[in-house]
Amino acid sequence: MGLNDDIALLSNVSLFADIGEDKLRLIAFGAERRRVAKGHELFREGAPADCAYAVASGRFSLTKAGPEGKPQPIGTAARGTLLSELALISMVERKFTATADEDSEVIRINRPLFRRMLEEYPEVTAMVEARIRENIQAMIRRVEALAGRFA
Question: Where is the Cyclic nucleotide-binding domain (predicted)?
Answer without folding.
Answer: 15-118
